[in-house]
Every structure is written in structure tokens, then in C-alpha cells.
Task: inverse folding
């Protein structure tokens, strides 16, 4: 595959890599439309009409979204966009030694000194998050002068990648091992950089801690570090704001996480039964966690991707990592989640870049990020939310490039 000249595999590949093409059978597409058409919208009540978004989505928004999804949204155009990039699948071993088939988009460079760079999505994100960044890179560089080998994988359990094994519990460390082995198998065992937000930032931290080949990470989400005890409240405005937004998230925004972590089987069944249910569950997060409302087409793109790839039931394993260290399998517990401050965040010694977007769910200021991470490149943005790659792709890409120029020798 040589899509736009960026599809030539680098030297040193040791994986059995096959070209992949995104395509949903027409029968499945029509079934989806029929299910959507027949899905009823709950009646008007106070919570979905006259309470704003305090209790979640509004009925007006869902009615309009359903109409657009059914009558205007074109999934085939999304597939065409996927297929405009070099697109592959490869079997790799995860951190437990189990085989996972990883699908990934890529822009490979012909430069012998190109820097391997992997972008890692979050939940409820997917490889859709990085399509704009891939387009920016294609427009900025040619295959001959692209400074990076850019890899955008679907994480295990997401999208076109296979899911965790059926006979054992799973977690982020095992899944991150699959990403590491993908990068090594592509010939990047001597070094690579990882970037991510949301779940992707957790993957980045695992890669940095466990694997020498991960030379550094760039993230747009940071954990809250352990803070001094004794009741002394911060006075810095950014610190105050971080705590206030964190408190708000704990009090009003974590019900989904508890459900994912404790009743993954049940919510997986529920959200795999109705496209409209899936849109309600995921669409709320896209709206609530973005700085300014994401365009409806982008939300529908991500939700449709989850639907056609059966992602929702397969991707919930990472929420159990909110459990206690000695639990096996781990179960998300209220006592852990509502603690807000993670007491044992491991320090990342490797050089880290950090893009702080003002309306991140919990906008951790740099001085707190320094407590858990060796931040060598920092950019503060006065807007932007949780989905930085979708909301502000130019700014995020610029930050990543600035970071790489500082650390890659």
C-alpha cells in the first residue's frame, strides 16, 4: 500500500503487516439505520427539557442528532477518509504474551532519521481523534521530508483492533505492551515518542515507566499529584480552579466510570443494543468535556465508529484500573475514585511535554504536573478542552513538534 506516498514500510519491520481497508457491509449499514429509525426518544421531562445540561443531554439535542444521523450523516465518507491514509493490521503480543491484532493508520517517512511517533487515543475517543492532525501533516510535509514516522493505532478492544482475551481479566499494562510491541515490530526498537490524552495519557505513562524504547512522552492530560496534607488550601488561581473542577467532576461526573468499572458486562449489553442509547451515553461526554461544542458530525463520526466496530462492550477493561493495587481482578471502588488525589502516582523521569488546555476536565497546572512528571516542554492554552486533537489540532501538533525538537537528539 502506498497511499499518497506515505505507505512505504520502514526498514527493520519484523511484523506480519497486512494492508487494511475500512468498509462496513451494506447490509449492516442498513440494519443500523433501521435500528436508529425505530429507536424511541424518551418523553419530555423536567430533567431533559428545563434543567439545561445539569442532568445530561437535552431532548432537543438528541432529537436533532437523531434526525441528522438518520438523514444527513454519510458513513461512507468517513470510511473514505480512513482509507485516504495508509491503513494496516498486524498481530502483536501484549504485555501478558497474548496475541492482539492491532489496526493502525500511518504516515511513514522516507527520511532515514525520521522520528517514530505514536498517537494514542482515549475514551470515548478513537483513531478519529487524530484524522485532522494526519491531514495537517500530509499538507505540511511530503514523504521525503516528513520528520516523523507517525503511527495512530486503535488500542486493544477499540475499533478495528481485536479485544482482550476471553479467559482472563485485563488492564492498561497488558494493553500498553501491545502498543510497545507494535512500535518495536515496526523497526523502532531503538526509540520512539508517545503522545496521548485521556486514556492515551495513561498508556503513555505506562510506556515511559516500563520500556526503555519509549524515550519520552507528550500528554495533554495530567494526573492530580499527591498534595500536602493539613487542610491548607491553595491560593494560586490555577490550582484553585483545578481543585474546583476536580471536585465538580467527582460530585456530578463520575457515574459513568463507576458503571464501567463495576458493571462492565451490563453496560456493554445496554449500549450494544441501540445506536441511540450509544449516542446518548457517548454524546454527553463529547459535549460536556469539550470547550466549545464539537461539531455534530464529529460526534456522530466517533459514535458510529464505535457502533460498527462493536467497541463499547470490548473497551471497558481500563476502568477497573481505578481499583486497589492488591485486587485481582480489579474493581473500581467509590473509595478510590472519590479520593480525587491519586496517592501513588509514579514519577516519570523521562522528558515529558505537556499541553495544558484551559477547559480540560481537571486542568492540572504545571507546578503540580512537575510533581509527577519531568516536564521539559510546556504550553498553556487559554481555550480548548478534553478532546484537544479534535478541538485544536494545529495547536496540539505544534506543541508536539516543539517538544520533539527539544528532546530528540
Result:
Amino acid at each position: 500500500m502506498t497511499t499518497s506516498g506515505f505507505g512505504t514500510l520502514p526498514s527493520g519491520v519484523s511484523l506480519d503487516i497486512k494492508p487494511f481497508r475500512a468498509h462496513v457491509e451494506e447490509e449492516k449499514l442498513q440494519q443500523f439505520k433501521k435500528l436508529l429509525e425505530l429507536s424511541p426518544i424518551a418523553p419530555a421531562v423536567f430533567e431533559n427539557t428545563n434543567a439545561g445540561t445539569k442532568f445530561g443531554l437535552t431532548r432537543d439535542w438528541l432529537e436533532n442528532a437523531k434526525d441528522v444521523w438518520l438523514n444527513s450523516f454519510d458513513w461512507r465518507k468517513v470510511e473514505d477518509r480512513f482509507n485516504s491514509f495508509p491503513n494496516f493490521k498486524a498481530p502483536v503480543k501484549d504485555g501478558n504474551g497474548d496475541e492482539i491484532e492491532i489496526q493502525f493508520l500511518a504516515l511513514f517517512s522516507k527520511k532515514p532519521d525520521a522520528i517514530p511517533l505514536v498517537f494514542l487515543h482515549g475514551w470515548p475517543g478513537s483513531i478519529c481523534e487524530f484524522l485532522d492532525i494526519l491531514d495537517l501533516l500530509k499538507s505540511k510535509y511530503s514523504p521525503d521530508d516528513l520528520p516523523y514516522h507517525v503511527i495512530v493505532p486503535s488500542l486493544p478492544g477499540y475499533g478495528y483492533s481485536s479485544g482482550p482475551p476471553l479467559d482472563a481479566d485485563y488492564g492498561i499494562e497488558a494493553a500498553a505492551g501491545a502498543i510497545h510491541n507494535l512500535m518495536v515490530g515496526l523497526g523502532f526498537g531503538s526509540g520512539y515518542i508517545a503522545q496521548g490524552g485521556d486514556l492515551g495519557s495513561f498508556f503513555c505513562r505506562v510506556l515511559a515507566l516500563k520500556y526503555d524504547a519509549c524515550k519520552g512522552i507528550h500528554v495533554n492530560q495530567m494526573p492530580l499529584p499527591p498534595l500536602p496534607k493539613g487542610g491548607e488550601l491553595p491560593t494560586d488561581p490555577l490550582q484553585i480552579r483545578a481543585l474546583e473542577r476536580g471536585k465538580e467532576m467527582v460530585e456530578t461526573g463520575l457515574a459513568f466510570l463507576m458503571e464501567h468499572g463495576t458493571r462492565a458486562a451490563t453496560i456493554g449489553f445496554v449500549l450494544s443494543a441501540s445506536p441511540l442509547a450509544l449516542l446518548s451515553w457517548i454524546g454527553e461526554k463529547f459535549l460536556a468535556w469539550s470547550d466549545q461544542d464539537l461539531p455534530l458530525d464529529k460526534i456522530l463520526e466517533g459514535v458510529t465508529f464505535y457502533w460498527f466496530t462493536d467497541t463499547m462492550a470490548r473497551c471497558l477493561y481500563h476502568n477497573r484500573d481505578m481499583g486497589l493495587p492488591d485486587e485481582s481482578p480489579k474493581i473500581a471502588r467509590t473509595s478510590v475514585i472519590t479520593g480525587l488525589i491519586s496517592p501513588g502516582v509514579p514519577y516519570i523521569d523521562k522528558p515529558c511535554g505537556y499541553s495544558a488546555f484551559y477547559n480540560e476536565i481537571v486542568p492540572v497546572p504545571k507546578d503540580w504536573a512537575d510533581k509527577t512528571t519531568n516536564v521539559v516542554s510546556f504550553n498553556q492554552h487559554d481555550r480548548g478542552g478534553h478532546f484537544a486533537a479534535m478541538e485544536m489540532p494545529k495547536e496540539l501538533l505544534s506543541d508536539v513538534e516543539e517538544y520533539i525538537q527539544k528532546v530528540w537528539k
